[in-house]
UniProtKB/TrEMBL annotation:
Name this protein carries in UniProt: YheV family putative metal-binding protein
Domain of life per record: Bacteria
Lineage, uppermost ranks: Bacteria, Pseudomonadati, Pseudomonadota, Gammaproteobacteria, Cellvibrionales
Organism listed in the record: SAR92 clade bacterium
Pfam families in UniProt: DUF2387 (PF09526)
InterPro entries attached to this UniProt entry: YheV
Amino acid sequence: MKFSTKKRFIAGVVCPKCGLLDKLVTYSKDNVNYRECVVCSFKDEIRISSLPNEL
């Protein structure tokens, strides 16, 4: 899954550092996907390891 370089908000997600709702954005830089909090500057690489299992 590839995200754009333009930062986009992720609805309904709580920041793991500050605990605020709807403050995370996602973007891609150098073919690496990131999520970042616009309030506390928490930043984390999004790692998608495998395809979802079929039900």
